[in-house]
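Recap from last week: sequence in, structure out.
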Amino acid sequence: MQITSLFNEFNRLQNVHGDKNLDAIYGCGEINNPDLCLVFMNPTSRNVSSNKNWRGIKAPWLGTKNIWKMLYQLDIINRELADKIASKEPSDWNHEFAKELYREVARNSIYITNLSKATQLDARHLTDSVFEDYRELFKKEISILDPRLIITFGNQVSSVILNRSVKVSDYRKKYDILDVAGKKFRVFTVYYPVGQGMRNMAIAKEDVHWIMTEAIPKS
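Predicted structure tokens:
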């Protein structure tokens, strides 16, 4: 479920860009040619797996609620898991549930990651230069994954990955190309759906649903 060969490099950058008392958070899900790779910004201490005492998988969004509500509505996780998440406080999350959750994500051929794996104490704004330090590692991640499509969330993440200025409102239901060692991947950009982007969750969900139903190449 995780690309362990990149962990050491992500851990090194945690010491450069993240909080020294927290651990890096790695991508998780289907790692063998998933239908979709979902790329968010960076983790915060709200992720329970960033705690150094956590011994399970360290994966995006563990201990949070809002993003999982959207992923349930997109049929990326099932109703039983969504109900469990809704009823849990962060302290209720455990290693076994985290693994069960990401097994379901993987079963639906989805991989979830952040561009920056460096965990911050809070949702402070990060400069482009922090994300740019992860761009080549992200390309390594993509090269190993070989996803059929990539969805990047928000202007900043999309701009850094594509190495050009991107305004999501101009890219709805359109894609750009990311070249990774000569292989071309289609990248769709979508509004960021959590934090200050909560107001855009309905639009983000609509666009991700369209991508899942209309844009993924048929087998």
